[in-house]
Amino acid sequence: MAFEIKRIGIIGAGQMGNGIAHVCALAGYDVVLNDISPDRIRAGLATINGNMVRQVAKGLYDEDEKQRALSRISGADSYTGLDDADLVIEAAVEKEEVKRRIFSEVCPHLKPEAILATNTSSISITRLASTTDRPERFIGIHFMNPVPLMQLVELVRGIATEDETFDSSKEFVTRIGKTYAVSEDFPAFMVNRILLPMINEAIYTLYEGVGSVDAIDTAMRLGANHPMGPLQLADFIGLDTCLSIMQVLHEGLADSKYRPCPLLVKYVEAGWLGRKTQRGFYDYR
Ligand code: NAD
Q1: What order of strands is seen across the sheet that includes strand 87-90?
Q2: What lines the ligand 1 site, CB under 6 Å?
Q3: What pLDDT was estimated at residue 193?
Q4: What is the pLDDT of residue 1?
Q5: Do 140 and 236 reside in the same domain of the chain?
Q6: Residue 111: what pLDDT?
Q7: Is residue 285 part of a domain?
Q8: What residues does the 3-hydroxyacyl-CoA dehydrogenase NAD binding domain cover (predicted)?
Q9: Distance in Å, CA 175 to ligand 1 centroid
Q10: Residue 30's beta-bridge partner residues?
Q11: Are residues 165 and 202 both part of a single domain?
Q12: What pLDDT, on a 0 to 100 scale, did the predictor assign at position 2?
């Protein structure tokens, strides 16, 4: 039996959070977009508007539908804005301590029956659930980037996730027009367990001087038919997120094959996080 979801809260208005807000509003849900920074909320809303303008220009829907979707989204820089949400999706940075702090602060504001989900790319759902007041109503709903374009969502149950939470999440994913794949709760789930070691290996390939940035990306685009080279993809994901995922794989699976490349560590230490900071393996300035 699924629980009826009408209003959705999203924590984190970054590239994933604003993408999730975008697809939820278009599917007819009321959406509250929360972030610690009012500037990030404003930037998130501006990104949604810009992405919808492009979709209208492509003929995917009309201006009226766009306006209706935008009117369903409001911003909130405090968790009180989430008190009547039926589903809250956390999409803040990929740091376990940050997510734990968010859950301890947000839970007292939520309705007891609200479902709490995380968009984590790699962290244990069972462990995150244990830091909340509702492990039975906690689940991983892992979107892909960019959310408005990518079809897949991974659904990950923690050990305590009850059937109603799982069924409601499946119904939600279907209603926003996405396809789900169910993953067991292991480090980085399925997509990133396979994708991130490939990206990390591409960074080692650069680090060891086997090829240049252009050569590596061209090789994988034209030689393996990938739509985007692995270094460009790393820049799009965010190098901080890539490093966090590799660290979760390395620690969680205790295998040296997941050791984050020192060059990735160095870029993150430099604040070169990819497209979102204008500099990564490519220069976007
Ligand atoms: P991002 O850096 O673009 O955005 C993170 C946002 O979280 C920022 O706006 C920041 O201000 C906000 N934030 C930080 N602390 C907060 C708090 N306490 N309360 C509210 N907001 C807070 O990151 P992103 O790429 O959108 O990633 C967000 C999550 O989605 C991460 O868990 C990441 O692993 C996951 N994810 C990322 C991708 C990707 O390709 N980037 C894909 C799937 C999932």
Answers
A1: 73-76, 30-34, 7-11, 87-90, 115-118, 138-143, 152-157, 179-183
A2: 11-17, 34-37, 40, 91-94, 98, 102, 119-121, 142-145, 237-238, 241, 276
A3: 98
A4: 75
A5: no
A6: 97
A7: no
A8: 8-183
A9: 23
A10: 7
A11: no
A12: 82
CATH of the domain at 76: 3.40.50.720
Catalytic center residues? 121, 142, 154, 192
- Report how far residue 279's alpha carbon sits from residue 202's, in angstroms, rounded to the nearest whole number: 18
Q: Give the count of domains, the chain.
A: 2
Whole-prediction pTM = 0.95
> What distances in angstroms separate CA 204 from CA 74, 229, 247, one per listed residue?
43, 14, 15
pLDDT, tens digit, 9 for 90 and up, residues 148-167: 999 999 999 999 999 999 99
ipTM for this model: 0.98
Residue 120's beta-bridge partner residues?
none
Which residue among 11, 15, 16, 183 is best mutated to probe the pocket of ligand 1, counting the most ligand atoms within 8 A of its Cβ? Answer: 16
Predicted pLDDT at 228: 97
**CA-nearest residue, atom 36 of ligand 1:** 121
